[in-house]
Description:
Blueprint: E1 7-10, H1 14-27, E2 30-35, H2 43-47, E3 50-53, H3 66-76, E4 80-82, H4 92-100, E5 104-105, H5 110-117, H6 119-128, H7 144-154, E6 158-162, E7 172-174, H8 180-195, E8 200-204, E9 210-218, E10 224-236, E11 239-245, H9 252-268, E12 273-281, E13 287-293, H10 300-307, H11 311-319, E14 336-343, E15 345-346, E16 352-353, E17 356-357, E18 360-362, E19 369-373, E20 380-381, E21 388-396, H12 399-412, E22 414-416, H13 422-430, H14 432-436, H15 443-449, H16 457-471, H17 486-489
Parallel strand pairs: 1-2, 1-4, 2-3, 4-5
Antiparallel strand pairs: 6-7, 6-8, 9-10, 9-12, 10-11, 11-14, 12-13, 14-21, 15-16, 17-20, 18-22, 19-21
Helix pairs in contact: 4-5, 12-13
Amino acid sequence: MTPPFSKLLIANxxxxxxxxxxxxxxxxIATVAVFSEPDREALHVLLADEAVSIGPAPAAESYLSxxxxxxxxxxxxxxAVHPGYGFLAENASFADACAAAGLVFIGxxxxxxxxxxxxxxxRRVAVSLGVPVVPGASAPVTDDKDAARIAxxxxxxxxxxxxxxxxGKGMRLVHRREDLPGALRAARSEAGxxxxxxxxxxxxxxxxxRHVEIQxxxxxxxxxxxxxxxxxxxxxxxxxxxxxxxxxxxxxELRRRMGAAACRLAAAVGYVNxxxxxxxxxxxxxxxxxxxxxxxxxxxxxxxxxxxxxxVREQLRIAAGEKLGYGQEDIAWSGxxxxxxxxxxxxxxxxxxxxxxxxxxxxxxGPGVRNDSGIYAGYTVPRYYDTLMAxxxxxxPDREAAIARMQRALGEYQVVGVRSTIPLLRRILRxxxxxxxxxxxxxxxxxxxxxxxxxxxxxxxxxxxxxxxxRAGREIPPAARPTVSPWARLGRPGAxxxxxx
Length: 501
């Protein structure tokens, strides 16, 4: 099979850069990695066929520099640029600049990126197509008085959202009128810093919804299909922690209706490539359009495992002008897949980032286990970028078996040297509501308030006492510091990512 491109530059880093390199290698495409100074020894740099330095640590001077990325592509003879997710993945100006430089941008047309990047414009498209949206304003708020009037009409609580937002930035939940001015200032400030546009709009807050998204693929020949849904309700601060497919709250009829709505939206804006349409689903099964992400999603592997479709390969084929070669009737789903995000964070201390050297790493394996990672033993997690280190994904014939497999895989995962989200993920997987599929975006609040029971109670009490002692500004006496992991005392040495203090 002739590869769609001879050489491709990956304008990103971490696990997604590794993921793209692997797909390219299987397709016979040479790869060019780019790296900032702290990433000189990163895994994606070691795996690529070529690597180009693009500057110092700040992303604005390296991974967000369109000029440096395009210069690297031209200098190495790359034909195409894959942006991954984050950084410039949804930057229409970067897509324009790639085209002007004679490079193929592995993503949707710039016009489609602009149409879906502006949330107000995207809402208007959805309304025109008969796709339900969360009740809210039809334009950004202009001042405090305007915001108060809109919020009063909608009824509290309301949600403030950045017009060009994403990833939870520029979002604020407001329960009371007196809190609105302060929340509006904070949301505008955050939106301006993150997206260069401080515009904010207001929606009614939907209580305890599921966050469900639909994966679409569209080629340049008029074919658009959906690959089903992903359940993404397990979030903290609007950042996803666990995703799965299919959703335990979506039946075949709801999947058909949401999938059809997602395809209508994609087709209406001339979307080409892989994309994701996000919805809220309330307790009655009604769904509301949130936004469309014009890129590959972090959680795309769960869709790959239940559909057997390699989404990065499909992106490359579509960008090269190939036809999908199949229709909606050819999409089939099999089994259940779950993804857990392994972040370098301390869940016990407000998810504080935990950069530093990884002194020991042992990733799980075995039947149905996939580990998409950007780290290795001896690698230093830099403090400058997103904390995502790896994604652990499992597949099994049904959801119950997938949960058991993920519990086993998390138990095998050892990351020593930095804190990680692994202990929290194991706790979520054990929660009765998660096991029962009773999920919504407030799940983490319930988890934080859930009592610890059984044989873990003593460990929890000791940990809470030590944390309280530290919060009081006192140094823990050496004699009080545990020298052996409490998880090791329970017969699970190293499984939690715990490290001696």
